[in-house]
Design goal:
alpha/beta, globular
Length: about 140
């Protein structure tokens, strides 16, 4: 019970720099809506910086919309599960935003899973669409 009591005392606040608020108003908006708003407000600002490869909000929005269109053609839509079998790259961000744009449920698959673990996760989550990094194709269940 001591751990719970300690948590509620919020000891980490003592380490916040002065001027940093201890609460945050979280908007009641969907992630894809927040992204679209940011892309509209800051189209030329860098949204993703991956090893020096900078993608601005306008570019990221365009790429996510294009992928969403490609996913919608075979019928991916609201409530469908899309597995992302990708490394932590810009492609993960693009794929994530594209799936959300369609109302799909995103299910990340760990790149360190064995093929047996991948098979189990896909069977368990019901994903009918998988976006897979080329280097993982050999591990495909």
């Amino acid at each position: 019970m001591e751990a719970k009591a300690s948590y509620f005392r919020r000891p980490w606040l003592a380490h916040y720099p002065s001027g940093v608020p201890d609460t945050l108003a979280v908007p009641a908006s969907a992630v894809c809506d927040l992204f679209e708003e940011s892309a509209r407000k800051y189209p030329q600002q860098v949204a993703v910086n991956f090893y020096g490869n900078r993608i601005r909000y306008a570019e990221l929005q365009d790429q996510a919309r294009r992928l969403a269109t490609s996913l919608a053609r075979p019928g991916v839509g609201k409530g469908d599960r899309v597995a992302l079998y990708l490394l932590n790259t810009a492609q993960f961000v693009i794929s994530y935003l594209a799936a959300l744009r369609l109302g799909a449920i995103v299910n990340p698959v760990s790149p360190v899973y064995t093929s047996l673990e991948v098979r189990h996760q896909l069977a368990d989550n019901g994903a009918r669409t998988v976006i897979c990094q080329d280097i993982f194709y050999d591990k495909w269940p």
